[in-house]
Amino acid sequence: MGTESNISDEKFYNRKNEITLLKKLLSTLEENSSPAIMLSGIRGVGKTSLLKKIKNEMEKDYLIDYIDLTCIDIYQTGKLTKIDLINEFYKVWMETINNNGLKTIINKIKKYFKTKNFKIKEIISTEGYPIPLIETKDNYKKLSDFVLELPQKIYEQENNGIKGVIMIIDEFQALKDLANDLDNFLWLFRSVIQNQRNVAYIFSGSISSRDDMIEKIAGRKGAFGGRMLTIEINPFTKDTVYKYLKEKLPSLIFEEDGFERFYKCTRGIPHYVNTFAQLLEKNTPLDDKKIKKEFQNLLPFFAIHLINLWSDLTLREQKIVTSLSEGSLERKKIAEKLI
Ligand SMILES: Nc1ncnc2c1ncn2[C@@H]1O[C@H](COP(=O)(O)OP(=O)(O)O)[C@@H](O)[C@H]1O
Ligand SMILES: [Mg+2]
């Protein structure tokens, strides 16, 4: 039991239906259809853990690339541009290719940059792949076409060995930072993926289902032209949490009302369940009163989590919440306050 996302099989619990469904959808790659999936759910519910599990289990048959957009260095500074994004996509693909020992592709890529007269910024020496320098708009266009087409190209090169290519884009709400360039980027994405038959895309992020971003990607007029399937990951049910704790942390002894309270406090969100369960006293009966008291001690931890949730909201959503801080309002009144 832990709070990191790359959890081992031994710690990973349940999600059997979600795993079966995802695998089934992804395996349609074998019939040359490119599934596109949007995995949604609140922060801490287990999206990343699930995706990593799928990656581990399917990696023997598929080439899988996982990218967390909030891990791009530049994202932390709040200045993410489409060039950074393309560079990062490129880097992550190169690493995936390298880790899978696909040497011939690297040689082809080197040749490509040479013939297109790209300046090379550096060669990542241990792995041996070049990092091109983007100097002009034309460079950017060429490189982005190249990078977005790469997964299909890899498949065509390697199709004896793999059943398809899967690109997982986690924390995709970070794309919002592209601001005015977002539409342009998604348009480019759309024009390239339309011709791909052996690449699956999974977008995942802690984003509200009413967010504009979802429409821009998964909507009828969005980048995936309405063929995107949405899968919502829900918190664990009461029964699941009960069985989960009994199996993984048998030293927790709940009285009946203690467990009720525990579930109310954590709402079945695995991140909360794990955090709270680890901090509770072991081998002592826990009743409602005890859980309440422990929960209060833990509030500062949860406050951090709420701050993160807050930063995921759009400015408009934040304004709606603040407008309600002094009491409930009619929709019309909220709308007036937003102006
Ligand atoms: N299936 C699971 N079994 C056990 N623990 C889980 C499971 N899914 C998530 N967790 C726990 O919850 C934490 C948050 O999960 P994570 O996948 O990072 O959520 P999300 O990506 O939805 O924000 C993980 O670090 C892990 O401790
Ligand atoms: Mg995550």
Structure, explained:
The protein has 339 residues and is an alpha/beta fold. The protein folds into 2 domains: 217 residues, P-loop containing nucleotide triphosphate hydrolases (Rossmann fold, 3-Layer(aba) Sandwich), CATH 3.40.50; 75 residues, Helicase, Ruva Protein, domain 3, CATH 1.10.8. It contains 13 helices and 9 strands. The strands form 3 sheets. It has a 5-stranded parallel β-sheet with strand order 2-5-6-1-7, with helices on both faces. Helix 5 packs parallel to helix 6, helix 9 crosses helix 10 and helix 9 packs parallel to helix 11. The longest helix has 25 residues. It is globular, with a radius of gyration of 23 Å. The structure holds adenosine-5'-diphosphate and magnesium ion (MG). Adenosine-5'-diphosphate binds next to helix 2 and helix 10.
What are the secondary-structure elements, in order, as H or E? HEHEHHEEHEHEHEHEHHEHHH
Number of domains: 2
Quote the beta fraction.
5-15%
Which CATH architecture of the largest domain would you pick? 3-Layer(aba) Sandwich
Helix percentage:
40-55%
Distance between the termini: 47 Å
Largest sheet: 5 strands, parallel
Based on DSSP secondary structure assignment, what is the total number of beta strands? 9
What is the approximate shape? globular
Low-confidence stretches: none
Number of DSSP helices? 13
Strand order of the largest sheet: 2-5-6-1-7
Kindly report the CATH topology of the largest domain: Rossmann fold
